[in-house]
């Protein structure tokens, strides 16, 4: 079965950086798009970024454009989210997700597989 495992979350001061990783294994042969979503306490889950495995088309939420970069390593079956200039409002549980198809959509309902999440906390 498909499995996604996030890592790299932690505590960081505002203005700092973190890199999240999502390792994919199992039945991911039909998952051509990988995405990152986040959810803060009391808030709805929101789209952060998405990328096609090949070619590497990307899509970013307006709130993270210019600060976050999504990338992938096909050989390692791993997707990354480099987060720079972090702000307190970035504090959330970050989830990795996967879907079939070719469009790096922001619609979370179109994603088929989800990781367990990793906590990112940004202090002011």
Question: What do these coordinates show?
Answer:
By secondary structure, the protein is mostly beta strands. The protein contains no helices and eleven strands. It has strands at 3-7, 10-13, 18-25, 33-39, 46-52, 58-60, 68-73, 78-83, 92-99, 113-114, 118-123. The strands form two sheets. Strands 2, 4, 5, 6, 9, 10 and 11 form a seven-stranded mixed sheet that branches. A four-stranded antiparallel sheet has the order 1-3-8-7, with no helix packed on it.
Assembly state (oligomeric): single chain
Describe the largest sheet.
7 strands, mixed
Query: What would you call the structural class?
Result: mainly beta
Q: Tell me what portion of residues adopts beta-strand conformation.
A: over 45%
Please count the beta strands (DSSP E, at least 2 residues each). Answer: 11
What spatial form do the alpha-carbon principal axes imply? globular
The pLDDT mean sits at 93
Nearest-angstrom radius of gyration? 13 Å
Along the chain, the helix and strand elements come as EEEEEEEEEEE
Q: How many helices in DSSP terms?
A: 0
Binned, the helix content reads under 10%
Uncertain stretches = none
Termini Cα gap: 40 Å
């Amino acid at each position: 079965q498909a499995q996604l495992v996030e890592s790299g979350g932690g505590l960081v001061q505002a203005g700092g950086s973190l890199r999240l990783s999502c390792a994919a294994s199992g039945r991911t042969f039909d998952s051509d798009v990988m995405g990152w979503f986040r959810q803060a306490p009391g808030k709805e889950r929101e789209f952060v970024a998405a990328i096609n495995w090949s070619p590497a088309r990307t899509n970013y939420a307006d709130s993270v454009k210019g600060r976050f970069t999504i990338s992938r390593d096909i050989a390692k079956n791993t997707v990354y989210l480099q987060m720079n200039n972090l702000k307190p409002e970035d504090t959330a549980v970050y989830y990795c997700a996967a879907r079939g198809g070719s469009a790096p959509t922001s619609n979370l309902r179109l994603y088929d597989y989800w990781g367990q999440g990793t906590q990112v906390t940004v202090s002011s």
